[in-house]
Write a structure and sequence with these properties.
Bound molecules: iron/sulfur cluster
CATH superfamily of the largest domain: NADH-ubiquinone oxidoreductase 51kDa subunit
Largest sheet: 6 strands, mixed
Structural class: alpha/beta
Shape: globular
Number of helices: 16
Helix content: 25-40%
CATH architecture of the largest domain: 3-Layer(aba) Sandwich
Oligomer: single chain
Distance between the termini: 37 Å
CATH topology of the largest domain: Rossmann fold
Number of domains: 4
């Protein structure tokens, strides 16, 4: 293992923008193209652009080290062109280097990893594959920032999070990992009205009413959405879903026609999943393999279907059932990319209007570091099993000290504050001193 990979491993870095894949494993490879994803795929979130505006030089330093480590011919930082301050900061930071900027239009899901690979290289990541299958490695920009800090010997202890939606003042904050969400909400001046909360972005985030839940290494946003808002009813599972699919889905196939993964040449056909779901006849599913390429972006549900149906949920339901039955995806790109691919892009503004969220698309200023009295650090913040704690109740710990280590696939966990360990279970509680 190279010294570079050792440093990333020791710092406990996982993908900051996704499912938490350990970064030391992802970067232990050779690739032609390194792509840094600063697109911030989900509307309303402002974290990536803040990180780029503020830490452009550190990010570029990390990208140079990453490029060298994976022996890439090309390194590209992808960002939306209308993030003007962030673009200006990055342009200045990359000048005199061989790192390129890719300026994207604002559409959804521009920041989907496979969409980005396709937009930058013209290559389709196969069903059942990863970007490395087409010579690419993709890392989130906050992951790059964590790498910059790891190269200086600093582990992951903090997270940047956007707090927005129906709040007094949308903000970006930094906070120790394990900070309860309600502390973040306070930094935004609290929720306005009776709200339900989404952890993550409006489309792919999940609903929670438990604001004592802690921030993890992958938390990117907290949104307050007034109860009764149509986004919430769309996100909540409907007991009438099957009945509606049966009665209303006219098999117009608009969900499939607008599916970005389908447009890249993958055999993703949500209208067939709806057909099978409505009839209860799985023979009508069509190609099973294509189902594995659905990234759950939700575009078919939140935008394409004019009848308000939930094709993305039908896809996820089938995908889970296939996985449960032990069926694995076969690496394949079924079709040629749709020549009309770029015409099918849904502008973010139109998506927000459709979801009745335009009023919440507001700037978010940086509100500093939120420091709670107690943190609850989950032992599972990454792909793989939970880490094994190496501290006990009563132990004093300092910020950055190792408190849990992976037993298999995973990443080291560090204390995010100085304090005393008060409890060790599925999470480690530390009371600040
Ligand atoms: S789910 Fe909606 S968009 Fe898809 S085929 Fe049915 S009616 Fe058409
Ligand atoms: S959620 Fe819908 S639009 Fe998105 S990839 Fe899956 S089928 Fe396609």
């Amino acid at each position: 293992m190279s010294e570079f990979i050792e440093k990333i491993k020791a710092a406990g870095i996982v993908g900051a923008g996704g499912a938490g894949f350990p970064t030391h494993m992802k970067l232990d490879c050779k690739a032609e193209t390194l792509i840094i994803n600063a697109i911030e795929c989900e509307p309303l979130l402002r974290t990536d652009r803040y990180v780029c505006e503020t830490y452009a030089d550190s990010i570029v330093k990390a990208v140079q080290a990453m490029k060298e480590a994976v022996q890439a011919e090309k390194a590209v930082i992808a960002i939306k062109e209308h993030y003007t301050d962030a673009v200006a900061a990055l342009k200045k930071a990359v000048s005199g280097t061989d790192i390129e900027l890719y300026l994207s239009e604002s559409f959804y899901p521009a920041g989907d990893e496979q969409n980005l690979v396709f937009s930058i290289t013209g290559k389709t990541v196969p069903t059942g594959g990863i970007p490395l299958d087409v010579g690419c490695v993709v890392s989130n920009v906050s992951t790059a920032l964590n790498i910059a800090q790891a190269l200086e010997g600093r582990p992951v202890t903090d997270k940047f999070v956007t707090v927005s939606g129906s709040v007094a003042n949308p903000v970006v904050v930094s906070c120790p990992i394990g900070t309860p969400l309600n502390e973040l909400l306070k930094a935004a001046g609290g929720a306005e009205g009776d709200c339900t909360f989404i952890v993550g972005g409006p489309l792919m985030g999940r609903i929670t009413d438990d604001l004592s839940e802690p921030v993890t290494k992958t938390t990117g946003g907290l949104l307050a959405i007034p109860k009764g808002h149509r986004l919430l009813s769309k996100k909540n599972e409907s007991a009438r879903e099957a009945t509606l699919a049966r009665a209303v889905c006219c098999q117009c196939s608009m969900c499939t026609q607008m599916c970005p993964r389908n447009a890249m040449g993958l055999d993703v056909q949500p209208h067939k999943a709806m057909r099978a779901f409505a009839s209860g006849n799985e023979k009508l599913l069509g190609s099973l393999n294509g189902i594995f390429s659905c990234c759950d972006c939700g575009l078919c549900t939140y935008y394409a279907c004019n009848f308000g149906l939930h094709p993305s949920k039908a896809m996820q339901r089938v995908k889970t059932a296939l996985q449960k039955d032990g069926i694995k995806a076969v690496k394949q790109v079924k079709n040629s990319p749709d020549p009309g691919f770029s015409n099918k892009r849904v502008p973010t503004g139109r998506l927000l209007a459709r979801l009745d969220l335009t009023q919440y698309d507001r700037p978010a200023s940086f509100a500093g570091r939120v420091i709670p009295d107690e943190v609850r650090i989950p032992l599972r913040m990454h792909i793989g099993g939970p880490d094994k704690p190496v501290v006990r109740p009563g132990d004093s710990v300092s910020r950055g000290q190792v408190i849990a280590v992976p037993e298999g696939m995973g990443a080291v966990i560090h204390a995010s504050v100085c304090g005393v360990v008060t409890d060790v279970g599925n999470e480690i509680r530390i009371r600040r001193t």
